Each structure stands twice: as structure tokens, then as C-alpha cells.
């Protein structure tokens, strides 16, 4: 048994609603708190001195100076298994070139597909571990990682195997997802329907056999996969037993409607969502995932996060860390910057980065600090939780724990 503390404040984020608005007054703040853990699981959380008296045999892991403890962040949407970079795309974009001009100059998703195909599984694994560990040091203890830069049976499997290999070599919890439906690969000679049938018939059964992931994602967009084809694909993926998630309404509408119709665990992006989409999502069990890093990377508007919460949606915030549209990969900074523009409370931001993001991944043992949960935690060098967003992501955690141990 181990007792960690004292913490000036602990925000366990327990007992809060899964959906809708949150005010900071709703936060249960424990002052001079401690966390009692055993075998990586939280046994008790409360007043540090009382916990110490009640558990005299507990080993004490003492904190130094003022610290605020939060659950580790859950980044429920990333593409950090890739090779190379797209700095050339970025320089063209900030200079005003269009999506089409960049694609015609050899940029876009296909460029990363080419670079990722040219990398070995070992190289992909190593760079993925480095990115996961950077995220971990910044308090992100659970990270969803998508494939989607392979776009052939063999290359998608290479990515998923790299994610599996990396999982065993980082203390961050990695959650894999198959995004073979990111776009129809340029070297595929058939139609969009034929590509999706190939994935359904050949790749998904293999992924299931090898237990590489139980999540299937798709990019619904005019430049990627149509809404009709996506509905058919996701329905069949669900019938095979996969949870499904959607890249929805990034540039044009249509994706979130499909997501809700098929019962997707989440609809992510939503920059182009209108009132009807907001209502649909709010009335559904599909988590709405905002990806402010993509808005920052593309110089576009944020998704309607405030409106989604006001309408009653479950809003998670994720980084979308990828080499094209969201190269920064700083989840806290992105969430903090979006919250100022969208007018989100700190409670809404922290919920979106923890237990609401865990819901998007269907994880129920992380994202909240309470007895029985995995002790994934992070502490910030301040005495008041409000300082964390105030510094807009520049203040980083002084300590991060996964399964009760310092990472
Ligand atoms: O989530 N929108 C589609 N896919 C990624 C971008 C991937 C890329 O540009 O490499 C996204 O933003
Ligand atoms: Fe994405």
C-alpha cells in the first residue's frame, strides 16, 4: 500500500454528469489530499493526514511544494503512428495555398502514406514510442492511436503491429484503432465501394483474429469516403463486432448524421456541424470530440464546443496529433486555447480531457480518481487548479503516474 501526497488540491472529477454543461462550482475539490493505492489501483482518496492515520503501514510517497492533482488525460484521437513530416505542406498552407494545390504538389495524406510505407515496422514503433512518451510526460496517460497511413492489407497490418509493439514498450496506455478507410489509396484500381469491401472482407477479420483492435474509424468527407458508403461500411464493421468512430463534419456536413445513425462511440472534428447536427449529437449516446489542434494547424474555425455542451452533448477534447493537419501534439495547450475562444469552463475542459474522453474509448476504469480506478494521475506545480488553464498549456505536470507508479 502506498499513500501519495499531500496535494494542495485534488480534482477527482468524480460524480459529474457524462453529458452537458458543467460549472466549476460542481467540482469536488479535496484540499490537502492524498491518494492511497495498491497494485496500481486507487483504494481511497481524501484528507492526507486522515488517510495516514488510518493506514499506518502505508509507504508514504511525499510531494514537495504546492501541487494540484488531476486524473491523467485521455487523448481519444491521434494518428501518431507515421513516418516523416509534412513541413512542406504546412509552409504552403500558411502562405495561402489551397488543399488542392498542396495535393497537386505531392502533399496531403498520400504523402504520409508513401513515407509510412517506406518505413520498417521497427522504425514506426520507435518513433511512436517517442511520441507516446512525450505525451505521457505532458500528463497524457491514455492515447488512442489510429492506423490509416498504410491503406493496403499488408501496410495497415504493419501499422497495427507497430502500435502493438509500442504498447509493450511505453508506460502510456495505447488504444489502437483501424483507419484503413482514411481515403481510397491512389494505387487501388477499383471503386470506393470495392476498396471498402476489400477492407471488410480481408482486413477486419484478420484484425479480429489477431486481436489488433476493436475500433474501426472512417473519414467521411467529399475528398475521402462518401456518407452512403460509410454507413454501409460502418454497419458491417459493427456487425463484425467492432466499435465504430467517425471523422465527421470536418469541412462539409454529413458525417455526424451517419455516426449517430450507426451508433458510433464518437463523432470527431465537427468544425462544419450546424444546428441540426448539434441537436442530433446531443440527443445521442455518441461522444462529440473536438480537435482544436486541427483547427490551429489548418487555420480554421473551432468546432461549436459551447453549443454542443449547451445542447446537452458529451464533449471530449483530443489532439488529432498527425503530421498533416495537427503537428503540434500539445493537448493541454490546444484545449486551453480553444476554451478561451469557445467559452468553456475549466470543469468542462478537464471533463473533456478525462472521463468524457474515456467514454469515447469505452474505457470505464480511467479518467476519474476514485476507489477501484487505475491510478493514472498527474500533478501540476501550483496551489489552485485555475492556474493550469490560465497558463494556456505552458505549465506542465511535475509528476505523472501510471498504475500508481511515477512514469
Ligand atoms: O484527422 N481528417 C483526416 N485525417 C486527419 C489528417 C490526416 C493527415 O492530414 O495526414 C485528421 O485531421
Ligand atoms: Fe484525425
From TrEMBL:
What GO molecular functions are on record for this protein? imidazolonepropionase activity; metal ion binding
Write the record's keywords in alphabetical order, separated by commas.
Histidine metabolism, Hydrolase, Iron, Metal-binding, Zinc
Residues of the Aminodeoxyfutalosine deaminase/Imidazolonepropionase-like composite domain: 33-58
Source organism superkingdom: Bacteria
Question: Which pathway, metabolic or otherwise, does it act in?
Answer: Amino-acid degradation
User: Might you give the EC number(s) for this enzyme?
Assistant: 3.5.2.7
Please name the GO terms of the biological process aspect recorded for this protein, alphabetically: L-histidine catabolic process to glutamate and formamide
User: Where does it sit, as one GO cellular component term?
Assistant: cytoplasm
Q: Where is the Amidohydrolase-related domain?
A: 68-404
Identify which top EC class this enzyme belongs to: hydrolase
* One Pfam family matching this protein: Amidohydro_1
PANTHER family assigned: IMIDAZOLONEPROPIONASE, IMIDAZOLONEPROPIONASE-RELATED
* The protein's name: Imidazolonepropionase
Look up and give the organism this protein is from: Mucilaginibacter achroorhodeus
Starting at the broadest rank, the lineage of the source organism is: Bacteria, Pseudomonadati, Bacteroidota, Sphingobacteriia, Sphingobacteriales
The encoding gene: hutI
Amino acid at each position: 500500500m502506498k499513500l501519495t501526497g499531500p496535494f494542495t488540491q485534488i480534482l477527482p472529477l468524480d460524480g459529474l454528469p457524462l453529458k452537458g454543461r458543467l460549472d466549476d462550482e460542481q467540482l469536488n475539490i479535496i484540499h490537502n489530499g492524498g491518494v492511497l493505492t495498491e497494485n496500481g489501483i486507487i483504494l481511497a482518496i481524501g484528507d492526507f493526514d486522515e488517510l495516514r492515520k488510518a493506514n499506518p503501514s502505508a509507504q508514504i510517497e511525499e510531494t514537495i511544494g504546492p501541487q494540484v492533482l488531476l486524473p491523467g488525460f485521455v487523448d481519444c484521437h491521434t494518428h501518431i503512428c507515421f513516418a516523416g513530416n509534412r513541413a512542406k505542406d504546412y509552409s504552403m498552407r500558411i502562405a495561402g495555398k489551397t488543399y488542392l494545390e498542396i495535393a497537386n504538389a505531392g502533399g496531403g495524406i498520400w504523402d504520409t502514406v508513401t513515407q509510412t510505407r517506406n518505413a520498417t515496422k521497427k522504425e514506426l514503433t520507435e518513433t511512436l514510442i517517442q511520441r507516446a512518451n512525450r505525451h505521457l510526460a505532458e500528463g497524457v496517460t491514455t492515447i488512442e492511436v489510429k492506423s490509416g497511413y498504410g491503406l493496403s492489407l499488408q501496410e495497415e497490418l504493419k501499422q497495427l503491429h507497430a502500435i502493438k509493439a509500442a504498447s509493450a514498450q511505453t508506460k502510456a496506455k495505447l488504444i489502437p484503432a483501424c483507419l484503413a478507410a482514411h481515403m481510397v489509396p491512389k494505387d487501388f484500381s477499383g471503386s470506393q465501394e470495392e476498396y471498402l469491401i476489400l477492407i471488410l472482407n480481408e482486413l477486419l477479420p484478420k484484425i479480429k483474429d489477431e486481436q489488433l483492435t476493436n475500433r474501426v474509424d472512417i473519414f467521411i468527407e467529399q475528398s475521402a469516403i462518401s456518407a452512403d458508403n460509410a454507413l454501409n461500411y460502418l454497419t458491417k464493421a459493427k456487425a463484425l463486432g467492432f466499435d465504430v468512430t467517425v471523422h465527421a463534419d470536418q469541412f462539409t456536413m454529413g458525417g455526424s448524421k451517419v455516426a449517430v445513425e450507426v451508433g458510433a462511440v464518437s463523432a470527431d472534428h465537427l468544425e462544419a456541424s450546424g444546428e441540426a447536427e448539434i441537436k442530433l449529437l446531443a440527443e445521442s449516446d455518441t461522444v462529440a470530440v473536438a480537435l482544436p489542434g486541427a483547427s490551429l494547424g489548418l487555420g480554421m474555425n473551432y468546432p461549436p464546443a459551447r453549443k454542443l455542451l449547451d445542447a446537452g452533448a458529451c464533449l471530449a477534447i483530443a489532439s488529432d496529433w498527425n503530421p498533416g493537419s495537427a503537428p503540434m501534439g500539445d493537448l493541454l495547450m490546444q484545449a486551453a486555447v480553444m476554451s478561451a475562444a469557445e467559452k468553456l469552463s475549466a470543469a468542462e475542459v478537464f471533463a473533456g480531457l478525462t472521463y468524457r474522453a474515456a467514454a469515447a474509448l469505452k474505457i470505464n476504469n480511467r479518467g476519474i480518481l476514485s476507489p477501484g480506478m487505475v491510478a493514472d494521475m498527474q500533478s501540476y506545480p501550483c496551489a489552485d487548479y485555475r492556474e493550469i488553464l490560465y497558463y494556456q498549456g505552458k505549465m506542465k505536470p511535475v509528476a505523472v503516474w501510471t498504475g500508481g507508479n511515477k512514469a
